[in-house]
Write a structure and sequence with these properties.
Elements (H helix, E strand, L loop, with lengths): L9 E6 L1 H4 L4 E2 L3 E2 L1 H13 L4 E4 L7 H14 L4 E5 L2 H4 L6 H17 L3 E5 L15 H18 L2 E3 L22 H14 L21 H24 L12 E6 L2
Parallel strand pairs: 1-4, 1-5, 5-6, 6-7
Antiparallel strand pairs: 2-3, 4-8
């Protein structure tokens, strides 16, 4: 059971591109993302919340632990979100137990330091990008391990994996790997609901109005366009040992008021 939201005064986000906010703004105007949106919800309940975001795009779960856990503990948060693992499951040598073990180390350390911790489960990306359907078993396996690790340490889990709306393409950017602004808002709402923040509810689970979806040749063309525009370049970066986060640091490394 999470503590009273009025006690959340120091919120720290750990993770990769989703926590950094890719897909919600850009590097010119600035990134927002679910963590920023959750911080805004916390501040609306109890003004004066201070917020830090240590997430860096492209990071594997082990890198998040190695690079962000120490700084996060030094900030003495009373609330932390830990969201990582998608970059791992896209790699050829994926081990759900190993990835979840990295997350569990962060869960345990943050909980031992007195912080409430929240995380999410991941939607089946095969339902968002049909060419990624072979990855579905990996997603399910990782989610099961996350639930088990969270259960051992009293970590709050926002079950975005179990809601059909989270695979609606309108919640995702064109690359189908990063949430769009609407998707980031739903993730923030899911976390707020799981944390039982005043004013939160299950509205985030409700479907969007019906929309036309491409079929036949149009659907095939869309898949080919996605593969050429996003999947191909991603594979090339991996083969070259490069990451989208190379040379990047946390966008908000210190606890600061939202204003």
């Amino acid at each position: 059971m999470p503590r009273s939201s009025e006690m959340y005064r120091r919120y720290v986000a750990l993770g990769d591109s989703q926590s950094e906010g890719l897909g919600d703004g850009d590097d010119v105007v600035g990134l927002r993302g679910f963590a920023d949106r959750l911080a805004e919800r916390l501040d609306a309940v109890a003004p004066g919340v201070r917020y830090a975001n240590l997430a860096v795009r492209g990071r594997l779960a082990g890198q998040v632990r190695a690079e962000q856990l120490g700084p996060a503990l030094a900030l003495r948060p009373d609330l932390a979100t830990v969201v990582a693992g998608v970059n791992d499951l896209l790699r050829p040598r994926f081990d759900a137990a190993e990835v979840a073990g990295q997350l569990e180390e962060m869960f345990a350390a943050l909980r031992s330091a007195g912080a409430d911790v929240a995380t999410v489960t991941f939607p089946d990306i095969g339902r968002i990008a049909p060419l990624a359907r072979p990855l579905a078993p990996r997603v399910h396996d990782l989610n099961d391990h996350i639930r088990a690790a969270a259960g051992r340490h009293g970590v709050v889990v926002a079950e975005t994996a179990r809601q059909p709306v989270t695979t609606d393409p309108r919640l995702w950017t064109d690359d189908r790997l990063h949430a769009a602004p609407l998707g980031h808002d739903r993730i923030a709402a899911a976390l707020a609901h799981a944390l039982e923040l005043p004013g939160s509810d299950d509205a985030w689970t409700r479907p969007l109005p019906p929309a036309a979806t491409p079929t036949g040749l149009r659907a095939a063309a869309a898949e080919l366009s996605w593969a050429a525009g996003f999947l191909g370049p991603w594979i090339v970066r991996r083969l070259r040992g490069r990451s989208s986060g190379d040379g990047r640091t946390a966008k908000r490394p210190e606890l600061l008021p939202l204003a």
